[in-house]
Amino acid sequence: MQKPKSKFDQKWKLFRGQSVQWWSLIAEHDLKKVDKAEDKLDKFMTILQVKYGYTRLQARDEINKRWVAYSRAKTIADAQTN
Hints:
Layout: H1 7-10, H2 12-22, H3 28-36, H4 40-52, H5 56-81
Helix pairs in contact: 3-4, 4-5
């Protein structure tokens, strides 16, 4: 039985597009590894740990912080265009 996708997995394509802007040490080959991973969040956190020396908790916090900021900015931009 396959487990349901996490919200991160569901939003991965959007997140992927922002990742190289948010983290300059992340390269395309890193993102391709995440593309292939079954658990994209786990793989992405591991890459942040390796590239930036984050702990697991720091990696998760950074991901959450950047996603919240992106979502808020997008919501504001969408509201201004309507």
